[in-house]
Write a structure and sequence with these properties.
The protein has 9 helices and 6 strands; from the N terminus they run αβαβαβαβαβααβαα. It is an alpha/beta fold. The chain has a domain of 170 residues: Rossmann fold, CATH 3.40.50.720. The strands form 2 sheets. A 4-stranded parallel beta sheet has the order 3-4-5-6, sandwiched between helices. Helix 4 links the parallel strand 3 and strand 4. Helix 8 packs across helix 9. It starts with a helix and ends with a helix.
């Protein structure tokens, strides 16, 4: 997403745990002709994130768009999950997202202008078999964004939620394995990460409240809402095959 934003002329602020990864992205953003400011931090740690956001914001001169994009996947039967792993997923996906918006909102509220962007997942509105903990964290993010959209509407802050399907990233590979495996025939084909990033920024620039990428996911969600019992039955059959 940072590289695509750079191509569109934005100045980029980056926060992640790995300094090496940040340095690599800063270099790629520079290749687009734009600039990036980066600082390493664990977003589940409010103090670390607060310090990083202050440094990045000072380097950029302000925040116009704040994107919560960090996420940790988890594919397992709930009964076999370890408490430490559950805490890690919740820490990044829930506490990290809350921290990002909670701390990053302050300068936007002072300016009475800005946009919060939640990069969510279809798992945030449809529980995915064997991804129960991950789905729960994404449902939490959806609730956060929905509440903030109403809370901030009169204060000049827009909230955008983008629900993605499968995207070819490390998280997708970790959950579904390599292409061509058994599970890849039971779930939708994944999107190219660069293509997904371009579509996300199209949604953000249009100021939309929410979007599904790819668009057909919205139809799948409507089927779930209109026909909950048949949908649940179909998902149980999918769960039996991918176990």
């Amino acid at each position: 997403m940072a590289i695509e934003a750079g191509r569109r002329g934005a100045r980029i602020g980056l926060i992640a745990r790995s300094k090496a990864d940040l340095d690599a992205v800063v270099s790629e953003v520079s290749d687009t002709g734009s600039t990036a400011v980066a600082y390493p931090a664990d977003i589940s740690n409010g103090k670390e994130l607060g310090r990083a956001l202050r440094i990045v914001t000072a380097g950029l001169g302000g925040i116009d768009v704040l994107v919560a994009n960090a996420g940790v996947g988890m594919k397992a039967e709930l009964v076999s999950t370890k408490t430490s792993r559950v805490a890690e997923v919740i820490g990044t996906n829930v506490a990290g997202t809350i921290n990002t918006f909670r701390i990053g909102l302050a300068p936007m509220l002072r300016a009475r202008n800005g946009q919060l962007v939640l990069v969510s997942s279809i798992a945030g509105i449809t529980g995915v078999p064997y991804e129960s903990v991950y789905s729960a964290t994404k449902f939490a993010g959806e609730g956060l964004a929905e509440a903030l959209a109403a809370e901030l509407a009169s204060k000049g802050i827009r909230v955008t939620t983008v629900r993605l399907g499968r995207v070819r990233t490390g998280l997708d590979i970790g959950n579904f394995g390599s292409a061509g495996g058994r599970e890849s025939r039971l779930v939708p084909r994944s999107m190219d990460a660069a293509d997904a990033a371009s579509k996300i920024w199209d949604v953000v620039e249009a100021g939309r409240r929410e979007a599904f990428i790819p668009g057909w996911l919205k139809s799948a969600h409507l089927v779930k809402v209109a026909f909950p019992r048949p949908y649940c039955w179909a998902m149980s059959k999918v769960a039996m095959r991918i176990k």
